[in-house]
Amino acid sequence: MIAVWNCRSVYIGFDMQKCAQVRECLAQNHIDYTYKVKNQAGSWAGREGTVRGRTGSFGQSMELMYEYEVFVHQKDLEQAKYLLGKGL
Fold it and tell me: Which spans in 42-88 are helix H?
């Protein structure tokens, strides 16, 4: 089971296609993973609310709006790094 205390990140980026490739590679090699998607414009900006609610989204790059992060169990980290370095 992957939990906060035993997971390690193998991919962080803004490319959804690359994230999908990483996840597919891990799944094909039977490595358990979990992932997180963070909306950059939805970040809390204090009393004013979210960044997007305070400033709008005009002029912001849609490619940089979402950040993707893929995690594996720490026991699978070296194998995942090897596979991702070789395959992608």
Answer: 51-55, 77-87
